[in-house]
Amino acid sequence: MWRRSILVMLLGCAAPAPAGPPSPPEALATPGARVSEADAAPRAEEPPRPVVAALLGPDAAAGPRSEVLVLGTVHLRDAGEGFRREALAPVLASLERFRPTVICVEHLPPRDIAEMDGRGGTFRQVAEMFARGDLRIGRLERKALRCSREEAAARAEALLSRPSSLDAASRRELVAWLVAAYDSPTALLHWSLLPPETRKPDERIPADVARSLDGDLASSNEIATLAIPLARAAGLTRLVSVDSQRDGARLLAEPESALEEAFGHPLKDEGMKAEVYARQRKLFEEGKARDLLPLYRFVNSPGYGAADVVAQWRPWLRMRLASGVDRFRYGNWESRNARIVANLTEVTASARAERVLLVIGVAHKPFVEDGLARLAHVRLASFADLAR
After folding, report:
1. Which of 183, 230, 285, 293 lies at a C-alpha separation of 20 to 30 Å from 88?
2. What separation in angstroms does the CA of 291 have from each of 79, 284, 372?
3. Whole domain around residue 317: which residue ranges?
4. Is 249 among the domain residues?
């Protein structure tokens, strides 16, 4: 039970942080923590390291570059009573100005789901936690279609390569292959494009699969409420899943007593008491029925990211636990975000300059943007420029 609660904590790393210009490090300290002499002491100068983006940036900037907009979001599945989709209309209008050519979402890629499930142990445990629905309806679809996941992925790709030829019948076929291949976000996009009267089960789409897709489409999850409406407005035919959860599988292999000590540490709780989180809750409560644009401006500001990084992650680096789980947890968080950046580069490394929108939990935004900023072929876009 404790391990399951830790998985929920891993998923819930999306707490908001303050707006405004970044504060100096001492002003952003974890509440109650003091800067030690070791932290404050001057360090020996290190030789400068070559930075690829700095060396190649001017040449890259002279030509077309892919542009990436990282939209940090609160997890809307937890919106609760009183939330109305209409409150996202100003956010959607701002994002449409970006004119994305690709939309990426915080969802496990199909290959990761299949690999983690196949590895068993904690990897399967994490896959069941974060992709339970994908696994369940994917198995149902493969049974109905009598195919392997690999065959389903190939059949789906063949149909996606001819988007202009998709009528209602072939789109239903595409949905079935996508579900069987574990690409639920893209399947949901095409399910939404079907006329409502055709979203019904048959011999190729079992009743449980149809019910699951209907439920996901009606949910407040940001894939349904942000990514799909934007993809439809832009005429896109797929959503690209870029998340990684290997860090959770590695962490759960640690001794349970060490995990309890780390996740129950008082420093961690102190960080979560930061005033900025009260401000985030206030903005959400004020806007959830009418207009959430002020909330999204706030959680996508540089000051927000700076304070959230410190409040959430400085405590992990200051626990100094004998087990080392504290440092392991933080290192795994960086590993997860590095994998997200690596997945994004499969999109940005294109023969044409792409305009990539990533919709992701807000805690990831500073880490993902930091990784993207190191890439000479990528330029970062700002939500503030769109949400004026």
Report:
1. 183
2. 14, 9, 30
3. 52-106+242-388
4. yes
Burial class, 146, CB count within 10 angstroms (exposed 0-12 / middle 13-18 / buried 19+): exposed
Please tell me whether residues 225 and 249 are part of one structural domain: no
Closest among 381, 98, 342 to 226, alpha carbons compared: 98
CB 16 within 8 A of CB 312: no
The answer to whether 356 and 348 have CB atoms below 8 angstroms apart is yes
Cα–Cα dist 248/305, whole Å: 23
What mean pLDDT do residues 163-184 have? 96
Same domain, 388 and 264: yes
Judgement on whether residues 168 and 251 belong to the same structural domain of the protein: no
Give the other-Cβ count within 10 Å of 264's Cβ.
Answer: 10
The token duo for 121 is: 């142990």
- For residues 228 and 91, membership in a common domain is answered with no
Looking at residue 272, the DSSP 8-state letter turns out to be: T
Checking 151-155 for CB contacts under 8 A at 24+ apart, the result is 152/177, 152/178, 152/180, 152/181, 153/110, 153/177, 153/181, 153/183
If asked whether residues 70 and 183 sit together in one domain, one would say no
Q: What is the pLDDT of residue 14?
A: 47
- What's the CA gap between 112 and 108, in Å, rounded? 6
Decide which of 216, 239, 262 is a domain's last residue.
239
Give the count of domains, the chain.
2
User: Within this chain, do residues 168 and 224 fall inside the same structural domain, yes or no?
Assistant: yes
Q: What is the pLDDT of residues 62-90, one digit of tens each?
A: 889 999 999 999 999 888 889 999 999 99
Dihedral over Cα of 373, 379, 383, 388: its sign: positive
Q: How confident is the model at residue 156 (pLDDT cuts 50, 70, 90)?
A: very high
- Give tens-digit pLDDT for 291-350: 999 999 999 999 999 999 999 999 999 999 999 999 999 999 999 999 999 999 999 999
* 315 CB-contact burial (10 Å; exposed 0-12 / middle 13-18 / buried 19+): buried
* Measured distance CA(351)–CA(167) in Å, rounded: 29
**Residues 360 and 280 both lie in one domain:** yes
* Cα–Cα distance list, 260 to 82, 253, 350 (Å): 35, 13, 44
Any domain includes 92: yes
Q: Let me know whether 247 and 387 are in one domain.
A: yes
